Amino acid sequence: MQRTLLSQKLTHAGIALLLLIPLLLPAQDTPPLINSRLTGVVVDANTQEPLPGAAINIKGTTHGVTTDAAGRFSFITGQKFPYTLIISYIGYKKQEVIATGEHLKILLAAVQSQLNDVVVIGYGTQKKSDLTGAISSVSGPLLKQPVSSVDQALKGAVSGVQVTQTSGQPGGGVSIRVRGGSSIQGGSEPLYVIDGFPIYNSPVTTGILSGTPANPLASINPADIESIDILKDASATAIYGSRGANGVVIITTKKGKADRSSLTYEGSYGVQSLQKKVAVLNAHDFAILRNDALYDANPAKGKYQYLSPEKIAGLGTGTDWQAAATRNAPLQSHQLSISGGNAKTRYFVSGNYLQQDGILKHTDFSRLGIRANIDAQPYDNLKVSANITASKSDANIAPTGIIGSLLIMPPTATIYEPDGSYTLRNPFENIFANPIATLLEQQNRSTANRLLGSAYAAYTPVEGLTLKVLFGTDVNNTTEKSYIPATIYEGIQSKGIAARGTFNSYSWLNENTVTYARAFHKHNVDVLAGFTQQEYNMEIVRAGAEKFVSDALSYNSLQGGATLVRPFADASAWVLHSYLARVNYNYDSRYYLTASIRTDGSSRFGRGNKWGYFPSAAASWRVSSEPFFKPLTPAISDLKLRASFGTTGNLEIGEYQSLAALYSLGYLFGKDINTGFAPSRIANDRLGWETTHQYNAGVDIGFLHNRLTLSVDAYYKKTSNLLLNVEIPWTSGQSSSLQNFGAVQNKGLEVAVSSKNFTGDFAWTTDLNISFNRNKVLTIGNGASSYISGNYIIQVGQPLGTFYGTVTSGILQTGEENTKGKYTGNAIPKPGDRLYKDINGDGTFTTAADRAIIGNAQPDFIFGLNNNFSWKGFNLAIFLQGSYGNKILNANRQTLELFTGQQNAAASALDRWTPEHPSQTIPRAKLDPAPVFSDRFIEDGSFLRVRNISLGYTLPKSLIGKLSAVNVFVSAQHLLTWTKYTGFDPEVTSGSNVSPGTDQGIYPISKTVSGGLRVTF
User: Fold this and answer.
1) 844-855 as b/e, with b when 16 or more CB fall inside 10 Å?
2) Which of 281, 592, 873, 960 could bridge to 586 as Cys pair (CB 3.0-4.6 Å)?
């Protein structure tokens, strides 16, 4: 109660501060005193080009101006000559100049490295040279890739961050792991902070659609983003407390430039195509396989129980279901932006449109969005800012299982009957629907409207002290519509199935912070303190109907269905209150210290564990600034050592998990069906968050005036109090309860190298990053050493994502039935059966008892290599991305290698065992639809791919007239991939830490070639 009252008082105080600011400002009625006038120009020291937007401030005062488009500035001030000017411009060395009244020409020297660039950290900014934590930044060419969502641009971009696409569907999502996965059942994705507003990027769905929901981050236009800063170690993320355990991705959108007004159009058009098809049998070879399977089951009926050799010879290739379902799909994007401003106000306004058709027919994604970013400084000691984006996105989503159905549908089956109607289903014993009819006729549509914005006011009553109040909101309205017509197999019995659902959510944020920054001789101090609060509310409603007279109105006439489906409604909310503080200190730009603490109170946890405390500390030493180091500076221009420790948390478990819950069900009372309630969960007052302790040690080195830079980080992080469903006595009325048990560790090494190989007319830069992470389960609580989850095992001493299955041992040959037949798992073994190892040594093989660890989805290392070349208006970027050592469960292959003749099979069936061809690796055809999970289906997922290659040309001024700039470009994504993986694409994941490497019907990632134009007026 006291904390709630305090939070209300602080909020009221923040609002009062905003209302009182005008009263605190000096009156403007008295004309200002003018003692001096000064003019000047700021130019690049090397090229003599003007530098528009450079900041010029009078030292010791708050009076400042910025240069115009020609680099000019002027002062009319009450200061008397002489006084000192401080001139700063991003990418250039800060300079101090004494003004005596004469016109000044100020030459700024470009910085040879990015050490003075500003990066965004939690609740503030900091120069790269002052960082004590592990933070990586993404900007420039990597953000210009043609992607539908910004998280896709992070693939291979920085060390320590593994980005894997969960679906190649337009607008599809990705899974991101910052320094490995730590949680088993809790959320594992990083926290995103967009212009100060924190969000967790979980899929939004009402539960009525069949298929993978669209990525919520796809609602944000990637072209609006200026930079991305990824906080990796606990020193950097602890300021986000209970939400920082999985890393923090800070996204900063573009701002206007003072006195640099511009109108820019950028458009592109491309074509996407399937990278490769999975090799399956054609109609001729499938017919032979089916004959063999039927003969194996019943030899008495002869070898040609399906088709005679004459009919087989006339079949040809039959239906290519993959070709029938896929297409070359167009992709287009357009953006128009206006930016500019003056010394007092800056603005950036943009509108964008994206249309991406999928390589699977009847799938697509479109987005229409606008953005307005405004920054103003109406008074020298008051800054206000607003960042608002609104978007509408529409997606047609591929139905669940469609990829698997396309692979197993027999090529002897046809898409259409002779009368033009759809063939309803597989004509053989296994019953599954015609995938083309499902894909083209089933309606799976999602529409999302989103408003995301934040605004703040920062008041500086005295030099160095800033009071800031921020408010933000995230409003999401998603509508999902589904219809399965009566003309396809899934809907024929129900005579049409319609459903509609709505998902409405809103979140509001209030942050009240105080910062104090001051330099005392060689001492520099930056102090932050604040209180934040955020609340989230969500509602879901869905309804449906069946048995329609006509399919014409689909989901737009639920009342037209004769049978109504039971409606559903749900609502939930959570609240997070936080107190935070941080101190940054450096002495003489040599010794740096950072300490922070955050206290979070969350409504999600038990009454005894609602508050958590998350401290951190870090230190660094810039060795290159020491006097004794100066003799080495020609070779080693920069050397910095870093170390940090911190604690973060994970609260992503859903709402109300600590509380007892009931669920509704129908029961028969007399002749009537009534609704009752039964317990579904017992209370756990001690439920708390997962806690991650992390240590980090790093070194940053610059060589040859920072032409070559190297950053190396080693880390160890341990996550304890894992959120797990633990078995409890049945006498409780429940089988399990969510509790805090177990621990997982991640330790690793990250290396990032940047090189300016050539400078001048021909420039060539190289950026390489490589990351090694080792994951291990330390404990899982309750005295257990392991538990099995499907095809995976979670075992103490092993990493998450460990495959658990049988081990193959060749093929049973003729005459070996009595000696090796007991290792086939069949009651009556026959030559051609697959042999398996007897793991437990009991002299026989059974699927349940004879399993072992057969691989792991964790890579040995991941890497990215980016090269940028420029010469006389031409620029070329080549970006390679790769992973090595990870395994993939090819579940599609497991199904395709059944060889039953009831469905299509993998091309490996051509080498299957027969009496005439006694294979040692591929089993015989047989009518046994039961798959056995084995190491046969665990494949090497290592790959190297050309993630992006782009070539651009900036037209010379002599050709474009009054236009500011014109650039044309062509680019390609996923142009080449080198891998041994036999599936569609090796870049697959389920998004789960328990089962991360399973490829089971995932929408394939496409290859894209596009071209575009950028014009600035």
Assistant:
1) ebeeeebbeebb
2) 592
Strands (DSSP E) along 759-816, which ranges? 762-779, 786-789, 792-795, 802-805, 808-811
Burial label, 196 (beta-carbon count in 10 A; 0-12, 13-18, 19+): buried
Helices (H) and strands (E) in the chain, counts: 11, 52
Q: Is the pLDDT of residue 72 over 80?
A: yes
Element (H, E) at 637: strand 636-650
Between CA 360 and CA 439 the distance in angstroms is 8
Helix or strand run (H / E) with residue 1006: strand 1006-1016
Q: Are strands 611-622 and 591-602 parallel, antiparallel or unpaired?
A: antiparallel
> 427-442: per-residue pLDDT in tens?
998 899 999 999 999 9
Phi, psi (deg, nearest 5) at residue 312:
-65, -40
What is the predicted pLDDT for the residue at 271? 97
> How far apart are alpha carbons 122 and 239 in whole angstroms?
6
- For 542-643, where are the alpha helices, taking DSSP H only? none
**pLDDT higher for 129 or 584?**
584
Q: Could you give the count of Cα atoms lying within 13 Å of 113 in the half-sphere of its Cβ?
A: 23
Higher-pLDDT residue of 131 and 976 is 976
Q: Kindly provide the b/e burial profile for residues 446-462, where b requires at least 16 CB atoms within 10 angstroms of the residue's own CB.
A: bbbebebbbbbbbbbee
Q: Residue length, the chain?
A: 1017
| 654-675 pLDDT tens trace | 888 888 888 888 777 777 778 8
Element of type H or E holding 120: strand 118-121
Rg (CA), the chain: 32
Helix (H) / strand (E) containing 968: strand 965-973
What whole-number distance in Å separates Cα of residue 130 and Cα of residue 115? 8
Calpha distance 729→678 (Å, rounded) = 18
Could you tell me the sign of the dihedral formed by the alpha carbons of 413, 418, 423, 428, in that order?
negative
Tokens found for residue 971: 């680019």
Distance from C-alpha of 611 to C-alpha of 683, rounded to nearest angstrom? 18
Peptide bond into 1004 cis (omega under 30): no
d(CA 555, CA 575): 36
If you ran DSSP here, which 8-state letter would residue 129 be given?
Answer: G
Concatenated DSSP letters for 233-280? Answer: SHHHHGGGGGG-TT-EEEEEE----TT--EEEEEEEEEEEEES----B
831 DSSP 8-state letter = T
Q: How far apart are CA 609 and CA 780, in angstroms?
A: 21
Residue 42, classed as helix, strand or coil, is strand
- Residues 774, 182 contacting (CB under 8 angstroms): no
Q: What share of the chain is helix, strand, coil (3-state, %, to 5)?
A: 15, 50, 35
Q: What is the DSSP letter of 927?
A: S
Whole-number pLDDT of residue 541: 97
SS3 74: strand
| pTM, entire model | 0.87
User: Coil, strand or helix: which one is 441?
Assistant: helix
Burial 934-965, CB ≥16 within 10 A → b, else e: bbbbbbbbbbbbbbbbbbbebeeeeeeeeeee
Q: What is the DSSP letter of 426?
A: -
Handedness of CA 131, 136, 142, 143 (dihedral sign): negative
CA separation for the pair 986, 988 (Å, rounded): 6
Q: How far apart are CA 399 and CA 493, in angstroms?
A: 19
C-alpha angle 48-50-54 in degrees, rounded to nearest 5? 125
Closest alpha carbon to 408 in 895, 948, 962, 32: 895
**To the nearest whole percent, how much of the chain has pLDDT over 70?**
95
515 pLDDT higher than 90: yes
